[in-house]
């Protein structure tokens, strides 16, 4: 019952956000975003998505290697494109990552470790993104600026609580909590904090966040927003942070937070929705290589195996 409610909530919530936006703002911001997209913006967005995808794939390769599962960079890039395409076309926003982990796990005959590498790779990226967002929102004015001191206190308290729990002694060394804690500590030590790994993960994550922000700023310029980058940067990070929430193919929370952030910054809620729509179209278009990867994988699976030729001597014996 609870799982069913959660599943339906993940679908209904984003739809309700979009319905409220249409009720309050009308359909004109959405249609304006679709009309404003042009070939130049799509090409530039695709180039930026190449940067972010390669950086994320590089981060995944580092984490997977630390956990002991081999992952060549070209295969990681192809799988990440496929994951991006599934995430922006299917509800939930996590289907692509689950598929990525399971597919890699089948390739290396270790689904559990491959799924953990995906989870820790996403976790590392979110940590870097949260840190960058907090720093920018503390330094630059935004609708969330007044809430940032309390946000920082909450994050520090949460991190302290996790640290205390991780050091707490379980009543039984064989309990489920003890096993989970040992597994998590081992994964973090080997996959995220190993010598040389943490620096590569941090650089890849920072470049990926920069790519997301640049794509959003490009969408804002395409929407006709002329505000300086220093004013748009905190808004971009706020909208990008909302993309981790459940959505319908990426739609819902992104447009809702964009409307709130742009409205609070005096740029107009309608312009925020238009920018978010353009961003969504740019990312969807740039994810099309993932569809090609899916089709190629399906073709390889559906193609019947080639029958091997018998040895030359065996063929000669039948002549």
Provide an overview of this structure.
The longest helix has 29 residues, at 111-139. The model is unreliable at 315-319 (pLDDT under 50). Helix 3 (39-66) packs across helix 6 (111-139). It is built from 14 helices and no strands. By secondary structure, the protein is mostly helical.
* Helix segment tally: 14
Low-confidence stretches: 315-319
Q: Distance between the terminal alpha carbons, to the nearest Å?
A: 68 Å
Beta percentage is under 5%
Structural class assignment: mainly alpha
Q: Percent range for helical residues?
A: over 70%
- SSE succession: HHHHHHHHHHHHHH
For the record, the count of structural domains works out to 1
Radius of gyration based on Cα positions: 23 Å
**Main beta sheet strand tally, sense and closure:** none
**Beta strands, count:** 0
Large-scale geometry: globular
Features:
single chain, about 325 residues, mainly alpha, 14 helices, about 0% strand
Brief account:
With 319 residues, the chain is mainly alpha-helical.
SSE blueprint and pairings:
Blueprint: H1 2-25, H2 28-36, H3 39-66, H4 73-89, H5 95-108, H6 111-139, H7 148-167, H8 176-192, H9 197-222, H10 229-242, H11 253-264, H12 269-286, H13 288-302, H14 312-317
Helix pairs in contact: 1-11, 2-12, 3-4, 3-6, 3-8, 3-9, 3-12, 4-5, 4-13, 5-6, 6-8, 6-9, 6-10, 9-10, 9-12, 10-11, 11-12
